[in-house]
Structures are given as C-alpha cells and as structure tokens.
Amino acid sequence: xxxxxxxxxxxxxxxxxxxxxxxxxxxxxxxxxxxxxxxxxxxxxxxxxxxxxxxxxxxxxxxxxxxxxxxxxxxxxxxxxxxxxxxx
Length: 88
Prior knowledge:
Layout (H helix, E strand, L loop, with lengths): L1 E5 L7 H8 L3 E6 L11 H11 L2 E4 L8 E5 L2 H11 L4
Parallel strand pairs: 1-2, 1-4, 2-3
Helix pairs in contact: 1-2
C-alpha cells in the first residue's frame, strides 16, 4: 500500500476520490500549501478519511522505504515539487 500525499479544493468530490483509492492507501498525508484561488479542504479530508477508516495526518516529510503518491491538483504537484525536489 502507499502513502497518499494529498489535498484538494472544496469543490471536488473528495469522498468519491478517496473511496476509489482506498484499496491502495495505507495513510493519507495532507500536504498544505497556500492557495489564493480556491479554498483547500484540509478539515474535510480528515473527516472523510475517518469515515472511510483510512489513517490521516499532516504531511511532514517523505517516508523512506514507503511508496508515495503525490495526488491532487496540478497546483498541489507544482508546489510539492518546488518545495521537495531534491530533498531527502
């Protein structure tokens, strides 16, 4: 199973996305970044993860020896790569 490094905008169907990915997710790690355009769904993700029985925590760092999937909007991926590309 994988660590899902994730965040989403409130206008997305987060329940359906996480329910679809649930069979391959070990833990959801919420990656927080600044978004001026739209509101991010941090609290909603915690709530939905709890309903689906998926462990959820705030992203702090990449966990070595685990498979990680960075998933969400292109803005999330862009911010993640800018911040973490080349870090261990």
